[in-house]
Design brief:
Layout lengths: L2 H7 L2 H7 L8 H13 L4 H13 L6 H11 L5 H17 L4 H12 L4 H14 L11 H7 L5 H18 L5 H10 L7 H12 L6 H10 L8 H14 L8 H7 L5 H17 L19 H14 L5 H12 L4 H17 L4 H11 L5 H15 L7 H9 L7 H13 L7 H11 L6 H17 L1 H16 L4 H14 L12 H5 L23 H5 L26 H4 L15 H28 L4 E2 L10 E4 L7 E7 L11 E9 L5 E10 L5 E3 L4 E4 L4 E9 L7 E6 L4 E6 L7 E5 L2 H10 L5 E7 L7 H11 L3 E3 L6 E8 L5 E8 L4 E8 L2 H16 L2
Antiparallel strand pairs: 1-11, 2-3, 3-4, 4-8, 5-7, 5-9, 6-8, 9-10, 11-14, 12-16, 13-14, 14-15, 15-16
């Protein structure tokens, strides 16, 4: 074959490149041919990888191909491919911002996606491309709130930050109510009737939280338990910026928990706590000891902890903190020791009761061997003395004596400033200090030279007889100094204090200028002005606006129309069982409980239906084998002012509903007067839990007793049901807490079905323990009697004498609970529990062990 024939058989584009011709115009065609094959591949991983590679090619000429690929991928059946389409949107936007409008259409489409895999990525694309288009979020707001718990962690962070910005534009401030009450309480006696009516109207318009605002707070609260520090920090900043002040405190415990993380996480968390603790000290006061400094902490962590301790200081804890600070001052870390001295100074200015104590402590530090500690003490003492100089002449004299030994420029300058400012209080020492410093003027730092010039000027004006020549000598030295700052200051002072023909009108006021009363300095936290940045952002960490930072808007005075977040039933599809937003929410707390109950009920309903469909063929609910007679005290007669109440579990299935546990309540009147209108009120139930109340008891005669029935849906948990048992005149807070064995319904089942179900509930669904069985508990009848008395279980026939089987299902979800007691040799037994509800299973195991081991 000739060379010419070989070339003809090759790709003509390769031939063009080989000949050195420009083939760049053909590049899109090459990309299209290569990418199109993989983007249409049946394997979702290959389709996603092809899109990722295509979007990473930073060549503007293939933008149309990328756009087509993203549009196609956004409709892909695989959520993984759609997730990669959302990632590609950001890359394409950075390559060609002119594609913004078309990309917004794709973002709008992907925001409607119900997959948790896609949610975080598309919100990130939204924040990158069109963060101002909040109209795209309206219809998807509730969906994002409900999906939040199931989204991957970094997606949660992005969504929470976006929803924080969204909420600040759509809801009114939850902090307004406090302001109105304060304004009303400060009532002026001489106000006119019209002004009083206006204030009365303000008080009547009490704040009611929007149900969608509450939905966001409720759905983000569980994420405070997240293992990811960024998620916890995101929820913390959301509560800080959106929650009522009375509710923001729940984030403090979670933030303190993060202090056990690595030093980088600690640094960010402590910075945010430092900002929070300035405005709301009460949030972190209970965790004061968590901020004590450890010897292993790096300097940056030590300094931040010190800042927080200083912010939390008050009259109650200041003595404890000062003892702690005394330890810190002796630290080998000199930077931290210096910061501690500054913290003591701040405590002295903020808490007047300890000002003198702090000042005396700082004076003691002046004899410290470490020069840095002495220097920082001098600087802080100088600031403290400005607040009340008349009482501290002795301290100024003591500091003047230290001038010969201190070499740190800032400390020397502070001492000179103090002596010059209060030279009239130390008339004998001030001229001598000027004499000594004049000798060393040429070797001093510029900062010290400026203060020597100021000292000379002030002494010239107040004690010219002794210091006139000294001052002129210092001014002559300053006139020829190398620093132009020193030369300029010297010329200015000479013209001001030494009158001559060229002096202007200002020389008359020299004394007023130099010896004017100076305002005392404010020792403030460096975190005071950081609250205008959103917590948890890079801008807050740097205390400077970073590129891409999106500011939180102010709360609107009037909330925008909430109906924009309503979604048509047709749009909701399968997940459409959601409460409409436009329903009245006058009692926001009760509506929230109802909505959460209905959501939990619908979820558990689907779970239980699936469980029932699996178990329907093999098990049926049976009558209880044993009904316990043990009663539990609900209300003691002393606490109930003569009204006593006891309850027990009757194990009667389905009286008030399929998911409710029956409880019989016996109420007794131990007084000599009748008690009227006994009823239940103020139920405080965990989310999802429901209660069917008994009918009110109109009248209970003296020494009378009555038994009523009620039902409680405990949601397959041993949590307490708290409520108020009320009479006509009183109310009493009471709790009902069920043993785990009463959360079950016995079922009938063959041994074959039992083994089949048990085989499907192994691994993490199995809990077991070996126990020592009391000799009298080793017979079949006794074991059955003991077990069914402790838990509402059904007995399963067994073909083996040493193996005893029991079966039940949970009342709420219908999940199977299989219990096996296998007797071994030497009076031991293996207790095995198989169930999907692993928490209930482990608690039941713990309750059954003593039943069989005790006589």
């Amino acid at each position: 074959m000739t060379y010419r024939q070989t070339l003809l058989e090759l790709d003509p584009r390769r031939v063009m490149i080989a000949k050195g011709k420009n083939a760049s115009e053909l590049f899109p065609a090459v990309v299209k041919n290569v990418a199109s094959k993989n983007i249409e591949d049946p394997n979702q991983l290959i389709r996603a990888s092809a899109l990722r590679v295509l979007s990473s090619i930073r060549v503007p000429i293939i933008v149309p191909i990328m756009m087509l690929a993203i549009k196609e991928a956004s409709s892909d059946l695989s959520p993984y491919v759609r997730k990669n389409a959302a990632h590609a949107i950001q890359k394409l936007y950075s390559l060609d911002p002119e594609q913004k409008e078309m990309l917004i259409e794709v973002i709008e489409k992907l925001l409607k996606d119900k997959s948790t895999l896609v949610a975080g990525s598309v919100v990130m694309a939204f924040e990158e491309v069109c963060p101002d288009r909040i109209d795209l979020i309206h219809k998807n707001y509730r969906k994002l709130c409900n999906l939040l718990v199931d989204v991957e962690e970094w997606g949660q962070v992005v969504i929470i930050h976006m929803l924080t910005r969204y909420a600040r534009t759509q809801f009114v401030s939850p902090w307004k109510d406090d302001e109105v009450v304060e304004e009303y309480s400060e009532n002026n006696f001489y106000e006119s009737d019209e002004e009083q009516k206006e204030k009365d109207q303000k008080v009547k318009n009490t704040y009611t939280m929007d149900p969608d605002h509450r939905l966001l707070l409720r759905n983000t609260k569980p994420l405070l338990q997240s293992r990811n520090a960024a998620v916890v920090m995101a929820v913390a900043q959301l509560y800080w910026h959106l929650a009522p002040k009375s509710e923001a405190g729940i984030v403090s415990k979670s933030l303190v928990r993060l202090l056990h993380s690595n030093r980088e996480v600690q640094y960010i968390v402590l910075q945010n706590i430092a900002t929070m603790s300035i405005q709301r000290k009460g949030m972190f006061e209970p965790y004061l000891k968590s901020f004590y400094v450890r010897s292993t902490d790096p300097t940056m962590i030590k300094t931040l902890k010190l800042e927080i301790l200083t912010n939390l200081a008050n009259e109650a804890n200041i003595s404890t903190l000062l003892r702690e600070f005394q330890t810190y001052v002796r630290s080998q870390d000199k930077q931290f020791a210096a910061a501690t001295i500054q913290a003591i100074g701040r405590c002295a200015t903020n808490i007047t009761e300890v000002t003198d104590t702090c000042l005396n402590g700082l004076v003691c530090l002046l004899s410290n061997r470490d020069e840095i500690v002495v220097a920082e003490s001098v600087v802080v003492i100088k600031k403290l003395l400005q607040t009340q100089p008349a009482h501290h002449g002795e301290i100024i004299k003591h500091m003047a004596k230290l001038l010969d030994n201190i070499t740190v420029p800032v400390a020397r300058a502070s001492i000179l400033w103090l002596i010059g400012e209060y030279c009239e209080r130390v008339p004998k020492i001030a001229p001598d200090v000027l004499r000594k410093t004049a000798k060393t003027f040429t070797n001093e730092d510029d900062l010290v030279k400026l203060q020597i010039l100021n000292l000379g000027a002030k002494l010239y004006l107040t004690n010219s007889k002794q210091t006139k020549l000294l001052t002129q000598y210092v001014l002559n030295l300053g006139k020829y100094d190398q620093s132009y700052d020193i030369r300029d200051r010297t010329r200015f002072i000479r013209q001001l204090i030494v009158p001559n023909e060229k002096s202007g009108a200002l020389s008359k006021y020299a004394k007023k200028i130099f010896l004017a009363q100076k305002p005392a300095p404010l020792l403030e936290s460096p975190f005071k002005d950081r609250d205008h940045f959103q917590l948890g952002t890079l801008s807050h960490t740097l205390n400077s606006r970073a590129t891409g930072y999106l500011e939180l808007s102010d709360w609107p005075k009037v909330a925008p129309d909430p109906s924009v977040r309503n979604v048509d039933v047709a749009e909701l599809g399968i997940s459409g069982k959601r409460r409409p937003s436009d329903s009245s929410d006058t009692e926001s707390a009760s509506s929230e409980e109802n909505s959460s109950d209905s959501e939990a009920e619908s979820d558990s309903k689907s779970d239980s239906e699936s469980g029932k469909s699996r178990n329907a063929t093999s098990s049926k609910v049976a009558a209880p084998v044993s009904v316990p007679t043990k009663t539990h005290e609900l209300l003691h007669r002393m606490s109930g002012k003569g009204l006593a109440a006891h309850y027990h579990f009757s194990r009667q299935p389905g009286i008030f509903g399929d998911r409710m546990v029956s409880v019989q309540l016996t109420v007794t009147n131990t007084t000599d007067q009748k008690i009227e209108n006994i009823h239940i009120k103020e139920k405080k139930l965990p989310p999802g839990m429901r209660m069917h109340e008994f009918n009110p008891i109109e009248c209970l005669e003296p020494a009378g007793s009555i038994t009523v029935s009620m039902g409680i849906d405990f949601c397959d948990s041993a949590q307490m049901a708290s409520f108020q048992l009320c009479t006509k005149d009183d109310y009493f807070n009471v709790n009902i807490q069920p043993p785990v064995g009463e959360l079950l319904l016995p079922v009938t089942m063959s041994e074959k079905d039992f083994k089949k179900e048990q085989g499907m509930l192994t691994g993490m669904n199995e809990t077991s323990a070996t126990i020592a069985v009391a000799p009298q508990n080793s017979t079949r009848l006794v074991i059955i009697e003991k077990v069914v008395k402790a838990a509402n279980l059904g007995v399963v026939p067994s073909g083996q004498d040493n193996i005893h089987r029991f079966a039940a299902k949970t009342v709420h979800s219908g999940s199977l609970m299989l219990v096996t007691v296998e007797l071994k040799e030497s009076s031991t037994a293996q207790l095995i529990i198989n169930t999907e509800k692993t928490v209930i299973g482990s608690v039941l195991l713990r309750e059954l062990k003593p039943v069989l081991s005790q006589g």
